[in-house]
Amino acid sequence: MILRALTAMAAPAGPRSRLSVFYFHRTLAEPDPLLPDEPDARMFDRILGWIGAQFRVLDPLEACERLYDGTLPSRPAVITFDDGYRDNYTVALPILQRHRMGAAFFIATGFLDGGMMFNDRVIEAVRKAAGDSLAIPGTADRLPIRDLAERRIAIERILRAVKHLPPDERHSRVLELEHGLGQTGRSEMMMEPGLVARLHGAGMRVGGHTRTHPILLALNDEESLAEIVNGADDIAAIVGTSPDLFAYPNGRLGSDFDDRHARMVASAGFRFAFTTHAGVADRSSAAMMLPRFTPWDRSPLRFRVRALRNVARAA
User: Fold this and answer.
1) I need a surface site. Which of 69, 103, 216, 261 has the fewest CB within 10 A?
2) Per the structure, how many domains does the chain have?
3) Global confidence as pTM
């Protein structure tokens, strides 16, 4: 009760309100030691309980509209998911429905129907790799993978090395890793279009996230605009309506996208767009750069205190 009251003081109803936007990627059926930061079903259920006890969870589009209209209730919050993982439908959706909460799902449409994002290809390649070491793609160096801790380090090293490369070069490096280990980057990790349509049919918002999840600053302007527009067109074809919401891949202003891309997103017809910068949105926030933040804590008190601090530091 105290934390809820303090949250209401920091985010009151009306024009002075502040909108908290929580974001997730995967919701695992069971814990995965290589993905310690991703909640499993039981933890996600608990997290939604913590959020629901402290915040009023709103429909994402409605919340954004009411933010700028100055009509938000106190303690407003929104839940979002990035990328388009199958477990968002199979695991997260039933839990959201049980809590009577809506959410926005930002879909990288080029990976539907059996595709895999580069980071997941790296994770799965290292997970399945045999032997005691593997080569870092593009170098002569090798990384030890004798135990779980070393495999985690190897994943972090490789992802750091390839993340901000131009898309074609990044793809080549990941392909080199997979071929060296005798693997292919195909799986059922991501949704197919039919599941995206079912999310929409269940009352969830489906938003844009580009087609192939590039670092937009690694592309030229023509390529960036094509990624944004093509992703929006793909979603419109799947759900029957153009998306209003967008999330920037990786989401860091200055390192992943800049003001040019925000203008492109607006020109493509999106009304609101989200970053991965911590903070809360108020009426002074740029509609194309709304912040998002999810506490990483796995105890209820720490999670809720950190969520409160995120709201209060903007007050």
Assistant:
1) 69
2) 2
3) 0.95
